[in-house]
Amino acid sequence: AHKVQVPYFVFDNRLKAFFNHHQEFIASDPSNESKTGDVVVIQKIENMVQKEITHFISETMYKCGDVKDPISGEYVVGSRTRAQMKEIEELYGATGNFDYETAPERGRLAETQDFTDRPVYRKWHEFEKDDPYGIRN
Fold it and tell me: What is the pTM of this model?
């Protein structure tokens, strides 16, 4: 089961502006492919087996870091597509830049060096036993 945050806007009549809010759902992942940071599509479960799990992940739109432009269908990095970045590299003769086609899939170092699948929190005090998931403030 994954914790999924769904962002939405709430209009404030007094200030005449929209403010960002989010709601959290617990969703099961039948395919077990989604990881922290992925953008997913969730659907409500009609016959709930557990009280906490109310939704399931029906589709992974894109992985964390792999953002796809909905109009052109190309992957983008910042404001440029990957094809545009490759053209610029060829024009200027850049070598040794990050190659998206040959890069290994995200999550291959899980449980060894990559702790993105673990919940992280801010440390406010130093204890004798160090917790690897605590980030210094």
Answer: 0.62
